[in-house]
Write a structure and sequence with these properties.
By secondary structure, this protein is mostly helical. The protein has helices at residues 2-40, 43-51, 64-74, 86-99, 109-118, 124-141, 144-154, 164-172, 181-189, 203-223.
C-alpha cells in the first residue's frame, strides 16, 4: 500500500513538473513574440497610426451609454485591473472545463486591444502570453480612457466595419455621439461575435443580444 502511494506521488510530481516546464516554455516563447512585435513597430508608432485614421473618434465624441455598455459587457473591471484580470481568467477556465468547449476567453479590453494592434495569426497559447505582456506594456504607457478610446476605434463590428464611427454610420446612419440607449446597447453587443450578432445578418438575434447588454448594464449600475 505504501509502495502504491509512493508511485502515485511520483506520477503527480512528474505531471506537475511537466506543467511547470510547459508554462515556462510558453512564457519564454510568448515574451519572445512580444519583443519581436515591438521591434517591428514600437507601441507609440502603432498607436499613432491608429489615431491618424480619418474615422478615428475621440472619447468625448462617443455616446456615453455606448462606452458604459462596452465596458459592462466586455470588461466590467476595466478601470480596476492592470491589464489582466485573474478573476475573469479563472472564471473562463472554469466555464470552459465545465462545458467542455471554449466559450469564454477571459481577456480584458487591454488584451483585446493588444491583439488587434499586434497579433492575428499566431498560435493560440503563445499569442495569449504575448498579449498579456503587451497589455501590461499598454497599461504602463496609456491611461484607461486612452486605452478605451483606442479599443472602440479598432474593434470589428461585423462585416468589414472597424471602429465605432464606421459602425454607427453603417447601422444607424448616425455619428457615435448621437446614438440612443437602445442603439448603443445593440452596437456594444456586436464585438463579442461580430458576424453572429450583426443586425444586417440577423436582426432578431441582434435584438436578443441588445436585451442581454441592457440587463448587464443594469447589473453593473446596481453594483456601483
Amino acid at each position: 500500500m505504501a509502495r502504491r502511494g509512493c508511485c502515485i506521488g511520483r506520477i503527480i510530481s512528474s505531471i506537475l513538473t511537466l506543467i511547470i516546464i510547459a508554462a515556462l516554455v510558453l512564457t519564454y516563447l510568448g515574451y519572445d513574440l512580444y519583443r519581436d512585435k515591438l521591434a517591428e513597430e514600437p507601441l507609440a508608432q502603432k498607436v499613432a497610426a491608429v489615431q491618424a485614421d480619418p474615422n478615428y473618434t475621440a472619447l468625448e465624441d462617443i455616446d456615453e451609454d455606448f462606452l458604459t455598455a462596452i465596458v459592462a459587457v466586455e470588461d466590467r473591471r476595466f478601470y480596476d485591473h492592470i491589464g489582466l484580470d485573474p478573476e475573469a481568467m479563472a472564471r473562463a477556465i472554469y466555464v470552459n472545463i465545465k462545458e467542455q468547449q471554449l466559450l469564454e476567453g477571459g481577456s480584458t479590453i487591454t488584451q483585446q486591444l493588444a491583439k488587434n494592434l499586434y497579433f492575428t495569426n499566431e498560435k493560440e497559447f503563445i499569442r495569449k502570453v504575448a498579449e498579456a505582456f503587451m497589455a501590461l506594456n499598454i497599461e504602463r504607457n496609456y491611461s484607461k480612457d486612452e486605452i478605451l478610446e483606442l479599443y472602440v476605434n479598432v474593434i470589428l463590428f461585423g462585416g468589414d466595419l472597424y471602429g465605432v464611427k464606421e459602425a454607427s454610420e453603417a447601422y444607424f446612419d448616425k455619428e457615435p455621439d448621437d446614438l440612443t440607449l437602445e442603439e448603443a446597447a445593440m452596437l456594444a453587443g456586436i464585438p463579442k461575435a461580430p458576424n453572429f450578432y450583426n443586425p444586417f445578418v440577423d436582426y432578431e438575434r441582434a435584438l436578443r443580444r441588445q436585451e442581454v447588454v441592457l440587463e448587464i448594464m443594469g447589473e453593473v449600475e446596481a453594483e456601483q
